[in-house]
Please model this.
Amino acid sequence: MIVVIFGVAGVGKTTIGKLLAGELGWKFYDADNFHPLANIEKMKRGEPLTGRDRRPWLERLRQRIEQSLSSHENAIVACSALKKSYRDQLRINSEVKFVFLHAERDRVARQLKDRPEHFFNLNLLDTQFADLEEPESLEDALRIQVRGEPTELVREIKEEIGLQEN
Model:
């Protein structure tokens, strides 16, 4: 099984994803590591990515998910996947589950300020919220409101999806 944790930059995808993967004994993949260098440089400069910029990134992620599925490797993937079309590209089969982390803009901005070492430019936060297509009820995605401690969110995700440690 692959669990894709998605939402805007700074919402806590990596933190939650690493905790969840650690508790389950699963592999963890951060989608940031799949970006071409040109994308990272653009975001550092505060320039939003285009659909064209995201195409090779999404293809790399899809390939990683396909490899994990074909080798029966359970994994957690932290990925913005802001648009439904991006999630559809990653939704290879029913073994790929999606968890949407939702938080208010002010909370996300505070969390972004607490990670100055990351390449994401805080000036891009508004474009993230503008681009975000929240999952509709017909889209198979678990919605988690970000509040409380990360360990509480991990417990909620595990319970809702029915995940067990290896």
Summary: Residues 51-70 form the longest helix (20 residues). The mean pLDDT is 89. Helices lie at 13-24, 37-44, 51-70, 84-90, 105-113, 125-131, 150-161. Strands lie at 2-6, 27-30, 75-78, 96-102, 142-145.
